[in-house]
């Protein structure tokens, strides 16, 4: 049964536990944290569990917002026998411990999350109105959201519909503290650079990355992220930690860095969540919808650097790659901020 009438939503005071269904992606999980914080702050007695893809659970473990992180082994559901494995996993999923009554909050809004939410067996499932692939048919209630709004603002609509007041100053991203990488001996005051993304057209080219690192010299630069490209920049001020960090270690590095420069990616949102000295680089994506959310963070888009909210609709629609000259300009802008 589905309802778009939020006046019919139940009171969280009638529940003992809440299940957050948000398996992926990395950036979207970070975007959901303020909504879960609102739940935790308003109803501290709730037992909060979070279902997330196995590869992303390390980012949630240790967060003060969550009592239990449940891994969702989505990668094992691929291939010819994937559907059978998914069906077999259902039996385990339905028997996991819970406190009744439980409310299920589906922030993912896809068919698989709707099915999984329904399989949980709880009597109350709530999702968002921009859910796709028929997932809304599995909800008891649907909260209206603006599909064009930033992901953080869309997700916050759910706790607000449940009667929780969330002021701008209440919005925070309570990530775990992270873990220092083994063998870490890099100099203090380093600049973290995350230049690669799985999204097509988002990564810096080799020449742009070299230009950026040259412009940041002599400040120590720590390269982080995942890449198969062996032609990474070298130099006495460059410390290459690419391919070498876990998610908890990446969180720790982003907390320690004096400044972070990152292309649009999950790690960019981690950096913005834990360190206001962050610059996100957007080529074709719209920073107003998917950019780094915290107010103090800056964005490069369409050839200039500004706050996310300061870009026009026309600028946000432009698909502009980062040239070598752009990269040098970004590096020089960061150096000026660090030395002013």
Question: How would you describe this protein?
Answer:
With 340 residues, the chain is of the alpha/beta class. It has 2 domains: 165 residues, Rossmann fold; 149 residues, Glycogen Phosphorylase B (Rossmann fold). It is 31% helix and 17% strand. It contains 10 helices and 13 strands. The strands form 2 sheets. Strands 9-8-7-10-11-12-13 form a 7-stranded mixed sheet, sandwiched between helices. A 6-stranded parallel sheet has the order 3-2-1-4-5-6, sandwiched between helices. β7, α5 and β8 form a beta-alpha-beta unit. α1 packs parallel to α4. The longest helix is centred in the first third of the chain and has 17 residues. It is globular, with a radius of gyration of 21 Å. The N terminus is likely disordered.
Order of SSEs? EHEEHEHEEHEHEEHEHEHEEHH
Average of per-residue pLDDT values:
93
CATH topology of the largest domain: Rossmann fold
Oligomerization status of the protein chains: single chain
Gyration radius, in Å? 21 Å
Q: Sheet with the most strands?
A: 7 strands, mixed
The level of helicity is 25-40%
How many beta strands in the DSSP annotation?
Answer: 13
Q: How many structural units, i.e. domains? A: 2
Strand order, sheet with most strands = 9-8-7-10-11-12-13
Shape: globular
Write the CATH architecture name of the largest domain. Answer: 3-Layer(aba) Sandwich
Instruction: Report how far the terminal alpha carbons are from each other.
Output: 59 Å
Structural class estimated from helices and strands: alpha/beta
Strand fraction equals: 15-25%
Unreliable spans: 1-6
> How many individual helices?
10
The CATH homologous superfamily of the largest domain is termed: Glycogen Phosphorylase B
CATH level 1 class label of the largest domain: Alpha Beta
């Amino acid at each position: 049964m589905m309802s778009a009438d939020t006046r019919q939503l139940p009171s969280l005071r009638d529940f003992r536990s809440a299940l957050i269904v948000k398996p992926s992606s990395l950036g979207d999980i970070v975007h959901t944290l303020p909504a879960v914080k609102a739940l935790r702050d308003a109803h501290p007695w709730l037992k909060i569990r979070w279902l997330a893809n196995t590869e992303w659970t390390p980012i949630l473990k240790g967060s003060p917002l969550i009592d239990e992180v449940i891994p969702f082994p989505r990668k094992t559901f691929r291939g010819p026998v994937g559907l059978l494995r998914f069906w077999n996993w259902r039996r385990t999923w339905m028997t996991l411990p819970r406190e009744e009554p439980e409310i299920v909050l589906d922030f993912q809004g896809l068919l698989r999350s709707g099915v999984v939410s329904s399989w949980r067996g709880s009597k109350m499932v709530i999702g968002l109105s921009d859910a796709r692939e028929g997932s809304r048919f599995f909800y008891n209630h649907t909260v209206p959201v603006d599909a064009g709004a930033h992901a953080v603002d869309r997700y916050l609509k759910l706790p607000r519909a449940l009667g929780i007041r969330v002021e701008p100053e209440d919005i925070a991203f309570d990530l775990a503290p992270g873990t220092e990488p083994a063998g870490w001996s890099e100099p203090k005051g380093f600049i973290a650079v995350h230049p690669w993304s799985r999204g097509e057209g988002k990564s810096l080219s080799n020449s742009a990355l070299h230009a950026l690192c040259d412009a940041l010299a002599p400040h120590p630069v720590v390269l982080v992220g995942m890449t198969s490209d062996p032609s990474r920049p070298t130099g006495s001020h460059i410390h290459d930690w690419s391919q070498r960090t876990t998610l908890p270690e990446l969180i720790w590095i982003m907390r320690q860095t004096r400044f972070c420069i990152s292309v649009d990616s999950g790690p960019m949102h981690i950096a913005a969540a834990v360190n206001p000295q962050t610059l996100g680089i957007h080529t074709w994506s719209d920073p107003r919808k998917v950019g780094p959310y915290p107010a103090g963070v800056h964005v490069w888009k369409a050839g200039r650097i500004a706050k996310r909210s300061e870009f026009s609709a026309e600028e946000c629609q432009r698909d502009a790659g980062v040239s070598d000259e752009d990269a040098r300009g970004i590096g020089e802008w960061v150096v000026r901020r660090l030395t002013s």
